[in-house]
Amino acid sequence: MNSSDSAPGGAQPVGVIGLGAMGGGMARSLRRAGHTVHVVDVRAEAARAFTTEGGFACQSPVELAQQCKVIISVVINAAQTEAVLFGENGCAGAMRPGSVFVMCSTVDPQWSAATEERLAERGILYLDAPISGGAAKAQAGQITMMTAGRPEAYQKCGALLDAMAAKVYRLGDRAGAGSKVKVINQLLAGVHIAAAAEALALGLREGVDPDALYEVITHSAGNSWMFENRMPHVLSGDYTPLSAVDIFVKDLGLVLDLARSSKFPLPLSSTAHQMFMQASSAGFAKEDDSAVIKIFPGITLPAAKPGVASIPIEPKGKAK
Questions:
Q1: Right CATH number for 180-295 from 3.40.50.2030, 1.10.1040.10, 3.40.50.300, 3.30.360.10?
Q2: Is 318 a residue of the active site?
Q3: Checking DSSP bridges between strand 143-149 and strand 14-17, what pairing results, if any?
Q4: Is the pLDDT of residue 217 over 90?
Q5: Is the pTM of this model over 0.70?
């Protein structure tokens, strides 16, 4: 039986591609809202695990498209999104006219606009919908979505967006505007992480107790959401990635590409990008982005503290 035929009244069958830190939480938020959720992940075990929560696992994006008129893609970058859509077993060829593809990755805004046009040629609607908020917000259905797309796309998936997000910003009626705002958000996120790491590194160099420094800064004007959220990773010596160093190599690269296209100077972004590049080339590419602190010489970082959570459950500031 096609599971979409058994969806409860008012519910909507929806597909989610990518069950990482964000996509997994988003899929669960959709389930809690009563929607029938089909999932695909490169890790087959992750998709199978979701079936124990009432979801349906598909083998490929094309199989997903045969079940759902709305597909939400939560993969890492434009290359992975391209593969999901147009690669072998990609979903674009199986999506019916009038279906909606919701693109949640951080990508070049021009690429996003071009993808909208490519899908429109097939009669498929497209929503440029980058996300922010982190894994905890995704699990709670409280992420922020920076969206742009045609009114018809919103009409078909508005309830789904509301199930996943506390804030859904509508930034334009064509793709690209959402991605531009997300790129600017990532400018601030990357610079703030780099600045937070630099500040804590200086404190360590000067012999300040790092836990005391964290306590003072998080109750002072110099605090930022990124300092409060990321520096506990350093204090506990836990660099398990929720957002890896290489994510900001990519995202700050997108920031600089966007600015370069209009010859706009971004000195702080350029410096932060070089810091993440240095951390990546030093072997920390897959570690948590707070590992950018490891590029600073002459400091002794806190050792790992087994059993100590590195991430505040709810930072005092607003979500990333």
A1: 1.10.1040.10
A2: no
A3: unpaired
A4: yes
A5: yes
